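retry 2 of 3: previous attempt timed out while embedding S-adenosyl-L-homocysteine. Reduced batch size to 1 and resubmitted. Inputs unchanged:
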Amino acid sequence: MSAEINNHIPKRHFLKQSFYDLNHSDLETVLNQNDLNRSAAAILFNWHYKKKEEAQCHEKIAKGSLAFFQNNFDFSLPAIETVHESEDRTVKFLFKLKDNHTIETVLIPFHNKYSICLSSQVGCAMNCSFCSTGTQGLTRNLATSEIVGQFLQAWRWLAKNRPGEERILNIVFMGQGEPLHNFDAVKKVCEIFLSKHGTSIGVQKITISTAGYIPGLQRWSREIPGVNLALSLHSAFAEKRNQLMPINMKYPLAAVLAHIDQIPLHKKQFVTYEYILIKDFNDSAADAQKLGTVLAGKSAYINLIPFNSFPGSQYKRPDVDKVEKFKEILDTFKIPTLIRIAKGDDVSAACGQLNSKN
Ligand code: SAH
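retry 2 succeeded.
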């Protein structure tokens, strides 16, 4: 009899809903439905997200509410399996999820502060020919808690290993996966980060990068207004973009740009267009002219990313002077353009190098 009970304990624990799957209003609803005081929602959010405490909440909270959460919710986070620290202080985490799948997350330093690059899926379905994650295929979407958990665990790692530097000021969905393919979970992650009861991150500090998944762009204005948008563009020529990004055959660039143009921007807000420069493929003067023509007149900001190689990749990075020439042509279109310097490539943490199966 007792063995039978014991057998059930781990199973039940596994099935408990994660606390980190709920936004603030979900928490209030749960409390309400169970005849508990709604005020516990703000206290719990403050404890776990603002103070980032891992242990059971010590704040003044009705005993019944605390017991209810402890009994019915899971407070554990994805486990850090390995950590790689780059010479430039970039940190790459490999997380192990409850079902043993793994994902990667990167902390990118700037002046003792960090941006965090979050994964939204195990693998990715987009199959872009230049991206290491694409070679993995899609295994599954991440739950909200598994995305929020990357942030909380990275923050705690910083607090422990680089005390005083636990300042993650920007959140970018540019890790593994296509965030708009997992819209509901990503939206809830944004709501959790934005909540004034928790981390209280400014909406202008969150950026979602997409390969151009139109069903997600259609939901943007209503459901995640104010969040920054980055589009992986990579070629303004249809045939080349088809070769790089199969999604272009279903959702062609012109239609994607038309949808993006419908998304309202604040006065000083831009859409970031990411453009990987690949040697002798999309790095010519004609490529730059075409890109400039397509983006001219938009509230655009271009990020030029010299290709980052990975084992088995078929492309190469152009020489520095070619990259600069490309930028000079874009300058004639008066589009602000930044050449992104690769960070963390000594530990395979740079854009496109994330592959949790290697
Ligand atoms: N699926 C989303 C987010 C993940 S990729 C998207 O497509 O935007 C994040 C950025 O890294 C994208 O701009 C992507 O195109 C870029 N990237 C992917 N592989 C790369 C590589 N090998 N070198 C440089 N940048 C790469």
